[in-house]
Amino acid sequence: EVQLVESGGGLIQPGGSLRLSCAASGFTVSFNFMTWVRQAPGKGLEWVSIIYSGGDTYYADSVKGRFTISRDDSKNTLYLQMSSLRAEDTAIYYCATTGGAALDYWGQGTLVTVSS
Amino acid sequence: EIVLTQSPATLSLSPGERATLSCRASQSINNYLAWYQQKPGQAPRLLIYDASKRVTGIPARFSGSGSGTDFTLTISSLEPEDFAVYYCQHCNKEFTFGGGTKVEMK
Prior knowledge:
The structure holds 2 protein chains of 2 kinds. Chain A is mainly β. Chain A has strands at 3-7, 10-12, 18-25, 34-39, 45-51, 57-59, 67-72, 77-82, 91-97, 105-106, 110-114. In chain A, the strands form 2 sheets. In chain A, strands 2, 4, 5, 6, 9, 10 and 11 form a 7-stranded mixed β-sheet that branches. Chain A has a 4-stranded antiparallel β-sheet with strand order 1-3-8-7, with no helix packed on it. In chain B, the strands form 2 sheets. In chain B, strands 2, 4, 5, 6, 9, 10 and 11 form a 7-stranded mixed β-sheet that branches. A 4-stranded antiparallel β-sheet of chain B has the order 1-3-8-7, with no helix packed on it. In chain B, a hairpin with a 6-residue loop joins β4 (34-38) and β5. At the A-B interface, β5 of A face β4, β5, β9 and β10 of B.
């Protein structure tokens, strides 16, 4: 059974850094693309970043240069390193992956709050 | 950059009624469109992919149609558990989501 479990969220001051993790089970992260999607309070879904099986990465313009996506194949875990955080980065961050269709599998999300 | 525009923003309907949700792409995306349902406090759930293919386990009352720039998600007869927010999504190396349509109970 595919499972995705995010962790690492919390309260962080503007300008700070945070690393989110997404532990995967039931499949191998390096075989699929893995993506981060966020949702600000009361708002819609916003795609953040993706890493493909070959290692190519892409970012939304809103986070380019500040966020870095990576994975650790030995730990079967996806990461999102976030720096220079802003109030507008406050959101629930979901990791998601494909089962062959689209974003078939989602984690439960981890809340990041950027506030002084 | 492809932009997905969903309409209406809110749909107020009663159980048993038909819901028709629209998603329009700023340029042709062939049939590379997915639909998700999200309920409060939950992660999104994939319903439809490749515009019209229903995910295993999704009830037959959900159907998707369209190609090119205009797509539709239809719920033939609303059940109480269908009142939620629905998002369309496209991927071409990068992902794009529509702004969502909230289906609320009248």
